[in-house]
Amino acid sequence: MLAKRIIPCLDVDHGKVKKGINFKNLVDVGSPVEIAAEYELQGADELVFLDITATLDQRKTMAETVEEVSKQVFMPLTVGGGIKSEEAMHELLQSGADKISLNSAVINDPELITDGAERFGSQCIVCAIDVKKDVGTGRYQVYSKGGTENTGLDAIKWAKKAVELGAGELLVTSMDCDGTKQGFDIDLYQQIGEAVHVPIIASGGAGKKEDFLDVFQKTPVTGALAASLFHFGELKIEELKKYLEENGVNVRR
């Protein structure tokens, strides 16, 4: 069984780490380079760097900032935001990224997943899926462009297609739970886990140690991501790992 991963996320907007609730009301947290260095010291298993306004601003992810962050960490670094071509993927991998997170661009051009997987290996290609539950139908729907546009895609079907196209991992964010600290959307990850057989990272809703235990025990996810909980020092990664181990979860050391 794969050891479970604890993954902090840096949502970066024009060079500053930001955090909000339900993808809105973003507040400044600090420098991505300094925060990344702190997570390296705390023993994070991986780090996700998302340029959250690159797509809306129609610009590329900041390779220079990625390079600075990569110099601070030895753990795997996943980078996403505004990536629309193989060349952009290559530039970021050259800048120090280990994996590329693709979101809005592959909704319009799904073959970009295949192109990236064939050139760099499927282990390098992470399909990020921002999901919101439709109140009327109860269906999980995919949103793009920083959570501002409902694509109409069924999240479970899109997850399956992304894997069929070559994605080696999924980063699934519940927009409903994002920043609320009310726990992960267990039903969402159970459904995604039944649909695909690649590593899944759960994102959105972590508020306490018990939430991580809950998602690891009740769903097949292999990684759990959090931002504000770690950014504001409410929970230390070492403390979380110790708690999970004490409760029978196999975590990385």
Break the fold down into its secondary structure elements and pairings.
Layout lengths: L4 E9 L2 E6 L2 E7 L1 H11 L4 E5 L11 H8 L6 E4 L5 H9 L4 E4 L1 H5 L2 H10 L4 E9 L6 E5 L4 E6 H11 L3 E6 L11 H10 L4 E4 L5 H10 L4 E4 L1 H4 L5 H10 L7
Parallel strand pairs: 1-4, 1-12, 4-5, 5-6, 6-7, 7-10, 10-11, 11-12
Antiparallel strand pairs: 1-2, 2-3, 7-8, 8-9
Protein name: Imidazole glycerol phosphate synthase subunit HisF
GO molecular function, one term: imidazoleglycerol-phosphate synthase activity
Pfam family, one: His_biosynth
Explain this structure.
It is a single chain. The protein has 10 helices and 12 strands. The protein is an alpha/beta fold and 253 residues long. An 8-stranded parallel beta barrel has the order 1-4-5-6-7-10-11-12, surrounded by 6 helices. The longest helix has 11 residues, at 32-42. This is Imidazole glycerol phosphate synthase subunit HisF. One of its GO terms (biological process) is L-histidine biosynthetic process.
